[in-house]
Amino acid sequence: MLKAWHLPVAPFIKVQQDRLFITLWLSGESLPQRITLRAEEDNEELSLPMQRLRQAPQPGVVAWRGEISLASGQPRRRYSFKLLWADHQRWFTPQGFTRFPPARLEQFAIDLPDAGPQWVADQVFYQIFPDRFARSAARDADQDAVYYHHAAGREIVRKAWDDPLTDEAGGSTFYGGDLDGISEKLPYLKQLGVTALYLNPVFAAPSVHKYDTEDYRRVDPQFGGDAALLRLRHNTQRAGMRMILDGVFNHTGDSHPWFDRHQQGSGGAGHDPDSPVARLVYLLRGGGRRTTGWVMPVCRSSTIGRPAWSTRSMPVKTVSYATG
Fold first, then answer.
1. Which residues are in the Glycosyl hydrolase family 13 catalytic domain (predicted)?
2. pTM for this prediction
């Protein structure tokens, strides 16, 4: 029985400069004598030869490789495989083997990979966990205020900078590092040869690590708020440094208004399955209608080549962050 393996991801896909290399794995008896790669360039069909590789990727598996030029054509490339024997032929598509040429939407598809900003490759990055990097000399009173941490179920007080970690230390333990503290350390970072900063999440969130975002529209006041981020960006620009923010937009915390586990009045889906925002999240149910967890739609999809987030099914507003 002939078996074939291919997905439009590594190790079956490899990009080198302006060439896209596509590999098909086969195993079984009566292997094809020849394979061609059917591709499209500006909706024009191409039949490209594939070469059998000498090195086997796995025991009992043979690999064939073809290539497509990326110098021209549409950003999305569609392709399939034509397997030829002396007396018959078969096509291989995401649906498996077929005796007939596949329709356009029945083929494999890959979007040309985004190479990213050209400036990134030449940078020396320094990753910063804001709460533990540096505490500014002059802090706003709100930064040291006691507040109630819903997930921890208690009030949180900032620890002294040199206090040792305790057994209960975790996401609800704060030491007071902030964005102005980073600004004050820029001369030190520049002396190290740093040319770009990568900041762990800074948006409003109850935990110290800020991966449980509550509000993407404002910088956490524990870090100095929006004004502190603007000051830091201004200072990094003056120092000739780039800056990247860890956005974590594919998940939020349970205090985000869409979920509102702690019932802060946003009408989230955590306690009301019929909430208007319930369709924006996927709810994980326990017994009865009790909600035990949730995931964002972008995390739910596991189908390669299909959108994980559809703007047709939910209201989406565009928010821009100028960090540079």
1. 127-323
2. 0.56
Q: Where along the chain do its domains lie?
A: 3-111, 118-245
Query: What fold is seen in the domain 118-245?
Result: TIM Barrel (3.20.20)
Q: What is the pLDDT of residues 156-202, one digit of tens each?
A: 777 888 888 776 656 778 888 999 999 999 999 999 999 999 999 99
- DSSP conformational letter for 119: G
For residue range 246-302, what is the model confidence (pLDDT) as tens digits? 988 777 767 766 666 666 655 665 666 666 665 555 554 444 444 444 444 444 333
> 52: number of CA atoms within 13 Å, CB side?
12
Contact predicate 226/219, CB 8 Å: yes
Return the residue matching tokens 């569609």: 78
Dist. CA 109–CA 20, nearest whole Å: 12
What CA–CA distance (Å, rounded) separates 277 from 260?
11
Closest CA to 101 of 117, 84, 118: 84
Paired tokens of 186: 């820029």
Class for domain 3-111, per CATH? Answer: mainly beta
Within 8 A by CB and 6+ apart from 140, the residues are: 221, 224, 225
